[in-house]
Amino acid sequence: MKKGMDPNPKGQRFSRRSLLKTVAAVAMIPGFGPFGSFVNVVRRQGPRVVVVGAGAFGGWTALHLLRSGAKVTLLDTWGPGNSRASSGGDTRVIRGTYGPDRIYVEMVARSLALWKENQRLWNRPLYRPIGALWMVGEDDAYEKASLPIMRESGLRFEELDAGEARRRFPQIHFEGVRWAIQEEDAGYLLARQACAAVLEGFLAEGGEYRQSAANPEHDENGKLGRVVLADGSSVSGDQFVFACGPWLGRLFPDVLGDRIRPTRQEVFYFGTPRDHGFSYDSLPVWIDHGDRLFYGIPGSEWRGFKIADDSRGQLFDPTDGERTYSPAALAEAREHMEFRFPGLKGAPLLEARVCQYENSPDSHFILDRHPVLKNVWLVGGGSGHGFKHGPAVGEHVAELVLEKRNPDPIFSLSRFEESKESGKP
Description:
425 residues, alpha+beta, eight-stranded mixed sheet, 29% helix, globular
């Protein structure tokens, strides 16, 4: 394909044979009978919905809307999982420890089911169930609050005292760790591959995708009529979903302002010894919740031993920001890795990546209707923990757009005004 060419300028076309194969595949999704699948794929009678942004939130939203009978056009400036996107990169952690935030634990459980269902449908493994070890520091209130919610949500785990954790994982130095949670259903996801798989599934089921920047053209009647693309053409719709990651605040500065704040985050991959216990068959995903939160993925699809600091970095321009790692961040990551994993002392740096979080002020998602444009939905605020929730967020937003549910207060825009009135940040 030539550079700049639209990979699907007029939507995907199918032969009768390929259409029948698609219908048969979609029929395997739980809740979809053969007849219902045929109606959804071929005879869409629902609204025309334009989804802007093909990352974890936007791609899954478009797919769920399509499966619910809507006519969906998905747009993205640089493509799903591209290197500027918050959903880019190779891997993301999926885990259920979320403190007292029941809604996120339940969304993890739902997302896990959807990840498994769809990877079976697409015959494309995207979820690596290697487990996750959550190491608990001095203050364990967050972890204690999470355990009963995980249990009620059907997420399997074990509580390990420090001695048992040392016995199971002799590669780890457990100084400062009081106890640990071994999550059996956790693991990691293939991020960029997953975004591509969702797009391919969306196209195979009859969706339309166009790769272009899109700007909303406001309508004075309290609705949005269309988005204007980079080539001057436009796409009209009945409903619009903007899931634009770190760019969401720029598109709607009057509503969001600095409520979406992109921050620079650095990820490092270190080489392991030849004969070692630092790959995914010897270690799970790990999260070290001490004074700061570090996390990592052993092996990480043969890229090396992945480690990252979850602390929010400096404000970052996702479009024009240079993605060269900083020596200070490398030194901090190496120091923590060598303290917690002594066998990796002196390990060579293999790769480094600069990505970004797109943070909301309270780290909760934003999944709500625009306060003025009543056919516009704003979806963002992943805040560094959103990717794993993509399937459940997409399902949630599709139900909002199709008026099958009401916005949840925890994800509403009004919470920011309430915080302002109460004097909270």
